[in-house]
Recover the amino acids of this structure.
């Protein structure tokens, strides 16, 4: 199976060489663990490799994404101006019918643009548009099928459940993706003092099940520390 580099220092060796090409990956974590940073770092790696990328955001707008990327020395604006990067901002406030109409055009957009990497930020906000569990499950599966048909490798960010940090808020996305990576705070005496990463699943490849410390640096982004696994 062909692998692609994640862009996260230290992660590819835990994935036996990288993320399987064409896979869908959920990155689950609480607010502040670096989910969006993870996704943009993945997109940035592809751009450096000469690939095209798409960022679909329900949270940050275009200027916010471009501005924040400068903190990590990722010149996303250059790729955006050169039409190597497409950034789509979707409004969660819009009706779900409008949102689904936009979603139905995505497959053709991906193919025509030639994107090989996609960041969807976030799956949690997407499922919140729907009222019943059945609607949530049906539409998140439909969305992921669209991206699969487009042929891109996709990262979906998802907010963690309040009581279970290794599960998404609605408990859905992890069951319809090919891989799950969890970002957590390591807490002691109710204080968050470091961050840890674990790979819960990754179809089609061997992967480490160790829990690893990681840090987020302003200049480079997320980096898995070379210290012994927890």
């Amino acid at each position: 199976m062909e692998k692609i580099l994640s862009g996260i220092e230290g992660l590819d060796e835990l994935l036996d060489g990288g993320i399987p090409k064409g896979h869908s990956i959920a990155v689950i974590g609480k607010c502040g663990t670096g989910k969006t940073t993870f996704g943009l770092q993945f997109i940035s790696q592809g751009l450096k490799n000469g690939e095209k990328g798409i960022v679909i955001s329900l949270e940050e707008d275009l200027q916010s994404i471009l501005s924040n990327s400068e903190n990590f020395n990722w010149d996303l604006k250059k790729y955006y101006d050169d039409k190597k990067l497409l950034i789509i901002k979707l409004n969660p406030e819009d009706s779900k019918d409008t949102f689904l109409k936009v979603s139905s055009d995505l497959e053709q957009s991906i193919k025509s643009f030639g994107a090989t990497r996609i960041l969807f930020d976030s799956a949690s906000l997407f499922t919140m548009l729907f009222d019943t569990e059945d609607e949530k499950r049906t539409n998140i599966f439909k969305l992921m099928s669209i991206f699969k048909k487009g042929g891109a490798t996709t990262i979906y960010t998802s907010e963690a459940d309040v009581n279970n940090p290794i599960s998404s808020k609605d408990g859905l996305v992890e069951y319809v993706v090919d891989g799950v990576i969890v970002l957590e705070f390591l807490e002691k005496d109710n204080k968050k003092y470091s961050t840890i990463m674990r790979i819960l699943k990754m179809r089609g490849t061997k992967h480490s099940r160790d829990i690893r410390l990681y840090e987020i640096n302003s200049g480079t982004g997320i980096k898995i520390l070379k210290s012994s696994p927890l």
